[in-house]
Amino acid sequence: MDFKGSDTLPGPRTEDHLPHTAQAAVKIVIVGGFGVGKTTMVGSVSEIRPLTTEETMTQAGIGVDDDYGSDSKTATTVAMDFGRISITEKLVLYLFGTPGQERFWFLWNGLFEGALGAVVLVDTRRLEVSFDVMGRLEEGGVPFVVAVNSFPDAPRYPVEELRIALDLSPDIPIIECDVRRRASSKDVLMTLMRFLHSLAMSGALT
Length: 206
Hints:
This protein has 206 residues and is of the alpha/beta class. The chain has helices spanning 38-45, 108-112, 129-140, 159-166, 182-202, and strands at 24-31, 54-56, 75-77, 81-86, 91-97, 117-122, 144-149, 174-177. Helices cover 26% and strands 21% of the residues.
């Protein structure tokens, strides 16, 4: 874009301005293994143009990165995704999607800082990837819900079977979703907010 002859730089788009009614902002992280749909979820639900840090996957990553699904996936997040959604007129969520490749997980600690809660996205074809993810959240004391992304070729299991397989306590919500759909992604975030509210009411959220 050419700014020659202009005295001012373009500012944010009107639709990107924070609503004047907003009184509270909450940081939420979207976590999960490689290719589970984190970038897609942030992009589908964000009311502003999302910030992404995707880079093209190259031959140099062979043997280093997770190559699951690489036949169709050509880019990967290397820092974070960022979006925003207004849950009510007064409450705004700032969404931070974490990188999925394990070699970028050192960035997670910074992204977790100040987060009130998290969504763990799960692919039932690779449940084992979720254990390290949830372990990092538990170590950091970040409450989370589990969202099972409905890939077309992924097996489907009853919620209680998933709870046992993931070794989750009975109080942690599990919800099925399709992160390509805004309404579905918003349902996941609402489930997280209700969970955080219940923890706060019980005194478990400090």
